Amino acid sequence: MNRAFNVTLAATLAACLSAPAVFAQGKPQTVSIMKVDPQSLATGYRTSKVVGSTVVNEANETVGTIDDLIVTPNEKVPFAVLSVGGFLGMGTKYVVVPYSSLQVSNNRMVLPGATKDMLKSLPDFKYNS
Which of 26, 28, 44, 74 is deepest in the core (most CB within 10 A)? Predict the structure, then answer.
């Protein structure tokens, strides 16, 4: 019994090793890897800490809240989805601004020149799902 198992195992291994390589359908995939200095990331902000942050203007007036961050496949830069207006989730409008337009000052998210009315005049953003 043991000899039959060993013969079967050897035949299976030989078949696997002699079979041609099998690739996934489509184009071969490549991964580009680059070194990232962990020290440079220490000055960054985790998305889990950014989402939910209050956004103020330079006069320290609250103009919205960061609801989400979105990275598009083409631009590869983040956009901030802001919720503006509304009370307790009623009447809230979502708008999008480039994340680069936000500044961090004294651990606060600042959108220079923004007012609630100006943000409300931006096109509505609606989540697909």
Answer: 44
**Local structure of residue 91 (DSSP, 8 states):** S
Which two three-digit tokens encode residue 95? 């708008």
| Tokens found for residue 67 | 């609801």
Give the tokens for residue 98: 């480039």
Residues in contact with 56: Cβ distance below 8 Å, sequence separation at least 6, in sequence order: 62, 63, 108, 109, 110, 111
Reported as a single tens digit per residue, the pLDDT across 55-64 is 999 999 999 9
pLDDT tens-digit readout, 8-18: 545 554 555 55
Cβ count near 85 (within 10 Å): 16
Nearest to 55 by CA among 101, 87, 90, 92: 101
Distances (CA, A) of 26 to 47, 68, 121: 34, 34, 45
Q: How far apart are CA 84 and CA 87, in angstroms?
A: 9
pTM of the model: 0.67
